[in-house]
Amino acid sequence: MMDQPFTTELLNQSVIGAALREARESQSLSIDDVRARLHLSDRQIIALETDDFNQFGSAMLVRGFIKSYAQFLSLNPEPLLDAYREQYPQDEIQSIEYKSPYINRPQSSGLGKFLTLMLGLFTISASLAWVGYKVWVYQQTTNLAIASEPTSAMNKDALTQALPDDGLTVDRHEISASAGAIVTDIELPKSNEPKLTQGAQLNPVMPEIKKTTDKGLDLSRSLETTNSEAANISPVKPPVESGKVRVRLVLTGSSWIGVQDKTGRTVFSKLAKAGTEEFVEGIPPLKFHIGNASATQVIFNGETIDLTATTFNNMARITLGDQ
User: Fold this and answer.
1) Which residues cross the membrane (predicted)?
2) CA pair distance 196, 194, nearest whole angstrom
3) Which of 60, 199, 304, 310 is deepest in the core (most CB within 10 A)?
4) How far apart (Å, rounded) are the C-alpha atoms in residues 305 and 290?
């Protein structure tokens, strides 16, 4: 819509408010139409059309309302604004400078500078002292560790020398099993057994040890099989409480699910992950809000519920249970 012509003659014939009112009435617009478009109150519209600009309290608001009203009526707002400035020249924005005798600029003090310098020196000294203390503690700890090493070595040598080679005859057979277990058979000689000569041979115990090792491996494999079977068994759900129903949810993809029961209480609100199953219990009817309907399977009373009819933009809203 082109701006309506706004001449000086029109301004001379009428004031600003009268020009706005005549333009509104010429377009068959009511005050309600202006209020709905400009979001102004009836009192503000009447004040603009009667030149009662004191109602606004600010010259900036008056100019803004005059401009908005004129543009709404397809008028050129500049002549109206010029007329307002001529009628109210005191409302022009002017810079104000005020000097108060009670405001004094802070003056630098020699004592303040001295205190600031002393505070900085104290902070630096404290930091250096703390670093020196940490270095001293580290050196003391290192010296103690070095001093304790010869003593430990001497105690180890003394323990090694205290055991004679011919004090005890021990037959030890260590076998490393494939599972990482070590089976050790230690046999102490009895006092009535004769000493073995250099050419004698001990009775082999390898078959018995291998048999024991095989039994251990079989037992370990049996335990692993039992644990895997136990992990695959789904936990047994307790029976449903009286007056409630249970709904099973199978997720092939992540989906947010919210459920409310008959009383309006939220009984389930969760972001269910893909590959999981969820169970919802509550007083029927249960109202379901499903965020990812294509990845959610709803099972009620052993039957899979068809979500197609209640799905919009992959979001489903269904109600299950007695109505």
Assistant:
1) none
2) 6
3) 310
4) 13
Nearest Cα residue to 184 out of 192, 195, 175, 197:
175
Quick one: three-class SS letters along 189-244?
CCCCCCCCCCCCCCCCCHHHHHHHHHHHHHHHHHHHHHHHHHHHCCCCCCCCCCCC
For residue 306, the number of C-alpha atoms closer than 13 Å in the C-beta half-sphere is 2
pLDDT given for residue 222 in this prediction: 60
The 10 Å CB-count burial string (b at 16+, else e) for 121-159 is eeeeeeeeeeeeeeeeeeeeeeeeeeeeeeeeeeeeeee
Output helix, strand, coil percentages for the chain, rounded to the nearest 5: 45, 20, 35
Tokens 């199978």 identify what position? 250
Do 249 and 296 contact (CB within 8 A), yes or no? yes
DSSP state of 180: S
CA 127/CA 131 separation, integer angstroms = 6
Which portions of the chain are predicted below pLDDT 70?
1-14, 90-109, 147-236, 323
Between the alpha carbon of residue 32 and those of residues 8, 17, 25, 125, 280, the distances in Å are 29, 17, 12, 77, 54
Instruction: Give phi and psi for 119, each to the nearest 5.
Output: -65, -40
Q: What is the rounded CA–CA span in Å between residue 29 and residue 293?
A: 51
Domains of the chain: 8-91 (1.10.260.40), 245-320 (2.60.40)
Q: State pTM to two decimals.
A: 0.31
CA distance 19 to 12: 10
CA–CA distance, 82 with 69 (Å, rounded to integer):
15
